[in-house]
Amino acid sequence: MYVSGRLEGTGQYRYDSLGRRVAKRAEINGEVEQKRFLWQGIANAARRDAWAEHLYLYEPGSYGRWRGLIRLKGEGQKVYYFHTDQVGTPLELTDSNGKIVWQATYRSWGAIETLSIKQVRPESELTKAVQ
């Protein structure tokens, strides 16, 4: 990754025989991040990283994300549910009691317009997992 003409990080990707990404390893400013991707047919069913496991649910006959959940590691296996728009953009994240803990609105082309983080610290593993 280049920032202002300088190399700030590197990335390595692995794909299966069907061309689906199954792993990502990135090193940015000396910090290593690894992710694993699981598939159900051509739909991405899950993503695992150091902070959480993301599970994705789809409407029958559709490949657009419908609902999903995030299970954090190291927080007593807390589960959060994310809610998306029709194209899979995350709009809200709720805890197991239905309370909104993360919410975003977007401008045209996907830039975040407003971001609200409640009940969790902005630097927590949950906000890393949502990103």
Whole-number radius of gyration?
16 Å
Low-confidence spans? none
**What is the tally of beta strands?**
12
Helical coverage, percent range? under 10%
Give the class from helix and strand content and strand pairing. Answer: mainly beta
Describe the structure.
This protein is mainly β and 131 residues long. It has two domains: 37 residues, no CATH class; 80 residues, no CATH class. Helices cover 5% and strands 57% of the residues. Strands 3-4-5-6-7-8-9-10-11-12 form a ten-stranded antiparallel β-sheet. The longest helix is centred in the C-terminal third of the chain and has 6 residues. The protein is globular, with a radius of gyration of 16 Å. It comes from Pseudomonas putida. InterPro entries: RHS, T6SS_VgrG/RHS. Pfam families: RHS (PF03527). This is RHS protein conserved region domain-containing protein.
